[in-house]
Amino acid sequence: MVNDVQPRVRRREIVEADLPGVVDALVRGFPGRDRGHWERGLRRMGQRPSLTGCPRFGFLLEAGSGPVGVSLMLYDGVAAGDTLTLRCNLSSWTVDPAFRMQAPLLVASALKRRDVTYTNISPAPHTWATIEAQGFSTYAVGQYVVLPLLARARERVRVRRDAAAWRDLPEAGLLADHAGYGCHVLTVEAADGLHPFVFLPFQARSGRVPLPLMQLIFCRDIAAVSRFAAALGAALATRGSLGLVMDAPPEPGGPPVLRHVRRGRRYFRGPNPPRLGDLSYTERVIFGA
Questions:
Q1: Structural domains counted in the chain
Q2: Residue 1, pLDDT score
Q3: Cβ-proximal residues to 181 (8 Å cutoff; 6+ apart), any chain
Q4: Which of 51-55, 87-91, 160-164, 175-179 has the lowest mean pLDDT?
Q5: Domain of life of the organism in this record (predicted)?
Q6: Distance between CA 227 and CA 136 in Å, rounded?
Q7: Do the Cβ atoms of 276 and 248 come closer than 8 Å?
Q8: What's the pTM value of the predicted model, to 2 decimals?
Q9: Among 20, 122, 216, 268, which one is most buried in terms of CB atoms within 10 A?
């Protein structure tokens, strides 16, 4: 007689010793990504400072000899005046088909804190209804591909690429971290001071031709992209990219829009709606394009 009883499923926090099995589960769940992709991202997660009461990696479902489900959670503390607010980018949720009935256990673990603002920045369209049923709201309803080099210069500014330009800025730690993740850090020197920007290079396919683009990862105010578009476009062109992807349309008189990608929704749930123009420390950077 065949015993088809499933092993007992247990939910718990991911610890470092689990990582090889976590990578196995992620490779099964996302066959388009290789082990190196997940190993690099998890290594970066492990190097981030830990936050009290927050899991370093996320949660797993365990049955038998290893993980059968994974939910990665990228926590970050964001300064708001004298207080530190918590945000968590929910990433790379997967459960083996034989254990899908246990998936709500992962959801319950991931969303239990009311003081945390949770984000989902890469939901597949077929999951939108489920995400909204979980209490999430959209904060960006598409990605805009713009051509900053074609914008009209509004003022005389200087774009600096050297780290010396931003070492004394309040965001210096963030800028240094993201430079280490392979992002391009630029500082615009204007009459009213220094304005830092972080861009992630990636390639998007249009047919068979890969298009080199830059994703806006961080700026203080997304309106500054339109303000400094011409200067930023010239600087990014020297890095081989003419297109810039951002989470909001440019302001009137800003760079022309090449395309609006409506599939690229971003969601949040929690007390502090995310600011447009800030994808720092999210999966987009930690795991790469």
A1: 2
A2: 46
A3: 44, 200, 285, 286, 288
A4: 51-55
A5: Bacteria
A6: 31
A7: yes
A8: 0.92
A9: 216
